């Protein structure tokens, strides 16, 4: 393939050779300090974060106890994807994660846009975690009798929106005290905020402060980050065990009926929040160059982390919805603490609030650890300025990339809205998962590539299964959910929900094409299923998120053609 092509690829042999060259070992050397336990704890730290202490509340309000099944379904999708990540990590043990995997399978332009979306995944995810951390930290201070002004704990958009909603509610005759906590806090923040030239100063300062502190910790070394994370994860797991163990005694089985109070549409409304819960498992692969035995330990750590975290998510969801009727969880930002307040266990609620600060700190650390290492790898390939590849001589960390990550997380965390951030992050994550699964299928078309990996995905021939599943799903929907067909045909012809119907049509066409390729190429079933499930979850993100995603990709392509295409080492060395 020509080095002038947009789809020029890096060979696996060249990547493996580069890892051992003097250029990397001397100028870009990272310290090999992580074992399988450390990697598993990194995965748990990333997965058990903002979702279990915050987003799980609104997800349960939308879908009821049935959200527990959505966690299982999404985990199965992640398990398929994890096999593909493990396959690549065992073949190409380098810090680029999905970006490097795409470079070897699809080519440079796809690798670039995936790396660009990984920036979205990690940076925006960390913004969400920082915002959640701020909420729990402020609640903890309030519990200790320390009041923090509302205008330095909330984003500008939320304060403006809540102020308007509260004002309208009071004008309609409602009392201020009868309004929700969010509306009251937003109204107070807007009214009490200092003003400059008529502009209200409202910003989430605790979110910025914790981002700065975590960025400093990541900057000074992987060993320090690892040890801190391991301690935080142990504490987090102990508290979740407390939540499940104590909460189980207060579960009322009647609260699980109906299991899906808002139907399947209510459950699917929580797709973004549930997908957001799992975005961290792929961060394990970004530490490949700091692992003692990446080809053995990264696949194991991914599987261990997914199994442990899925079990915990399901148990916590069932306990939460068993104690608190799901409709009472609408708008609740600290559902686990709220759950124990409902049954009069205020002491346990205080412990949960304190532990949430610990849990979110560890999640923030892992995301902040992963992003600079992807940028470092992209800079090595010439797609980003060489400053991003700089490794600190003393601390052996990607110094400039770490600082830039702190800036790109800390500043938006001051002003961003949590719900919007979660939705935007989830679609970028699923895009990365999608390409990793597809990349394995492309890579394994060459038998020589299969021989270079120490991790083998169990091979099941998808020749008849992929198409058979499509037929079964279509027949099932026709028999048991005829309304789905009515909705589709009513909207695909120009109805109000045309955008979502069009996304579903595209999904079905791509599934049919994958079925054809599975039949003609005898593809491996596990990556095929990962491809289909991740694509389906992307269709459930809604047209607004797809529009933002397309705009983000368009900006990425502009940067690629304006800078990266010419500066790429594959182009320079040709």
Automatic annotation (TrEMBL):
Annotated localization: Membrane
A Pfam family annotated for this UniProt entry: AA_permease_C
Domain Cationic amino acid transporter C-terminal span(s) in chain numbering: 525-568
GO molecular function term, any single one: amino acid transmembrane transporter activity
Membrane-crossing segments per the record: 39-60, 66-86, 197-219, 231-251, 263-281, 302-324, 344-367, 400-418, 424-443, 464-481, 501-519, 526-543, 549-565
A GO cellular component annotation in the UniProt record: membrane
UniProt KW keywords: Membrane, Transmembrane, Transmembrane helix, Transport
Signal peptide interval: none
Highest taxon in the source lineage: Bacteria
Stated name of the protein: Amino acid transporter
PANTHER family: CATIONIC AMINO ACID TRANSPORTER 4, INNER MEMBRANE TRANSPORTER YGJI-RELATED
Membrane topology according to the record: Multi-pass membrane protein
InterPro entries: AA/rel_permease1 (IPR002293), CAT_C (IPR029485)
